[in-house]
């Protein structure tokens, strides 16, 4: 528009002033005017670009204000975590009553470099315990350990078929989330494969207990679960069978002191000095499990049973747990109560990876477990757990074991 006005002005000037201005002067004036016009157009272009940049920035700020996410950014990276504060009172026969305060903190980042691939890295409090990320408070306020809890990839090779590798969450189904075979904090290392079609599922894995063959010490545990998951009338049923092969016979401990077998039987070259101690058995665990979820009125109810028998051991080879949960502490101001009875003989399962709380952890224990929780909101829950158990029934001196746990837990 400015160029058109300027050209009109030049023509007008030419007609009006041609008689009084020489051709040379008029040519100079026209050149200067065109130069000015070009400069004005350049400034207009710069101004337009600046306006567009400001509008784009305003839209980005508005996007961040309304969604908390940059405009145009993909949602492939997610961060989540949880924090738990715990008080424990432990009353074990022939031991002083023990009280302690503990925390658990976990943080995980997941990303999707492709639509069918997930990569995750997680950190957690605690030490080198394979089945606990709790950290006991004390030590004069010293800083606490943070360790690698997760480092895995998950590839959806086909719909319903996943391949997982690294240090990962346990892929095997645990009825009611109970730890008869696997503690909830256990993070196996190796490869896992999960497959679902219709109402049927298959989970299988090869997990490294030791993967380095330098000292001819590498050990790999193999296992699978298969079963049915679907509706039965108005209820939901999960039922199946599993088999796990863990070659530990004549093998020394994986972590801890030389005689730390977590309830499993063992033999030592020198029984007095406790040297040269090795497992008496391998663990060829055959599992049968079922969980039925239904409602009573509007209240959720879950019933479960889990049975395991070690095919390699000739004695002390059976473990089982059964229980129920009423309610569900998930939505704000909801509650749950549960009861479980468990009997776990010394060589029924590998004590290294079973529940670390029941009867003090490991195998060779039986008794009752009571739990309850109240959800203040979706992110905040308070609860209690009470263990009334006996331990060392098969090996050692039997003793009563009671444990009260009070928790307040937050997730984000």
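^ structure tokens above, recovered residues below v
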């Amino acid at each position: 528009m400015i160029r058109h006005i300027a050209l009109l002005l030049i023509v007008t000037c030419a007609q009006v002033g041609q008689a009084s201005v020489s051709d040379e002067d008029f040519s100079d004036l026209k050149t200067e005017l065109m130069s000015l016009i070009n400069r004005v157009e350049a400034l207009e272009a710069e101004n337009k670009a600046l306006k567009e940049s400001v509008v784009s920035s305003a839209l980005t700020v508005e996007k961040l204000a309304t969604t908390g996410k940059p405009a145009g950014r993909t949602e492939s990276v997610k961060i989540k975590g949880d924090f738990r504060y715990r008080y424990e009172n432990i009353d074990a026969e022939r031991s002083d009553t023990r009280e302690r305060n503990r925390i658990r903190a976990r943080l995980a980042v997941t990303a999707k470099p492709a639509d069918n691939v997930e990569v995750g890295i997680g950190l957690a409090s605690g030490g080198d315990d394979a089945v606990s990320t709790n950290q006991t408070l004390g030590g004069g306020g010293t800083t606490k350990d943070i360790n690698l809890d997760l480092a895995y990839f998950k590839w959806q090779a086909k719909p319903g078929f996943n391949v997982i590798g690294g240090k990962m969450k346990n892929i095997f189904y645990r009825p009611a989330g109970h730890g008869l075979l696997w503690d909830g904090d256990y993070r196996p290392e190796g490869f896992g494969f999960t497959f679902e079609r219709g109402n049927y599922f298959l989970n299988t894995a090869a997990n490294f207990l030791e993967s380095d063959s330098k000292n001819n010490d590498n050990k790999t545990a193999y296992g699978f679960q298969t079963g049915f998951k679907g509706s039965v009338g108005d209820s939901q049923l999960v039922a199946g069978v599993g088999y796990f092969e863990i070659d530990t016979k004549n093998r020394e401990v994986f972590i801890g002191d030389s005689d730390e077998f977590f309830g499993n039987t063992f033999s030592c070259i020198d029984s007095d000095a406790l040297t040269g101690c090795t497992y008496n058995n391998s663990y060829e665990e055959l599992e049968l499990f079922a969980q039925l979820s239904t409602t009573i009125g509007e209240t959720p109810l879950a019933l479960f049973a889990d049975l395991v028998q070690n095919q390699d051991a000739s004695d002390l080879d059976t473990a089982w747990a059964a229980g129920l949960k009423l309610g569900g502490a998930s939505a704000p101001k909801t509650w749950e109560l549960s009861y479980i009875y468990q009997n776990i003989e010394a060589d029924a399962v590998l004590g290294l990876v079973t529940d670390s709380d029941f009867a003090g952890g490991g195998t060779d224990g039986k008794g009752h477990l009571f739990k309850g929780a109240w959800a203040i909101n979706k992110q905040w829950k308070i609860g209690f757990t009470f263990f009334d158990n006996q331990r060392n029934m098969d090996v050692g001196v039997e003793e009563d074991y009671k444990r009260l746990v009070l928790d307040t837990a937050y997730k984000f």
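Residues 252 and 278 are 4 Å apart (CA to CA).
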